[in-house]
Design goal:
The structure is a single chain. By secondary structure, this protein is an alpha+beta fold. The protein has a single domain (9-64), classed as 2-Layer Sandwich (Alpha-Beta Plaits). Helix content is 34%, strand content 31%. It contains 2 helices and 4 strands; from the N terminus they run E-H-E-E-H-E. It has a 4-stranded antiparallel beta sheet with strand order 2-3-1-4. Strand 2 and strand 3 form a beta hairpin. It is globular and about 30 Å long. The protein starts with a strand and ends with a strand.
């Protein structure tokens, strides 16, 4: 499963926001966000570029690496 590092998450609400933003993307299946690790893992059911993932995370106010 692809993983993306995320800066700026501080609480469970942040985790929920990132999870929801990624699940809205076409081609993203299962999403798991870890506050402790500062990262999100996801399954791609179609072609989803890392840039699309980072853009979705940035759009809600977090920094994706």
């Amino acid at each position: 499963m692809p993983t993306v590092k995320i800066k700026g998450m501080r609480c469970g609400h942040c985790v929920g926001s990132v999870t929801e933003a990624l699940k809205k993307l076409a081609g993203v299946g299962e999403v798991t966000v870890s506050l402790e690790k500062g990262e999100a893992t996801y399954t791609a059911t179609a072609d989803v570029s890392p840039e699309e993932i980072k853009k979705a995370i940035s759009a809600i106010g977090f920094e994706a690496e």
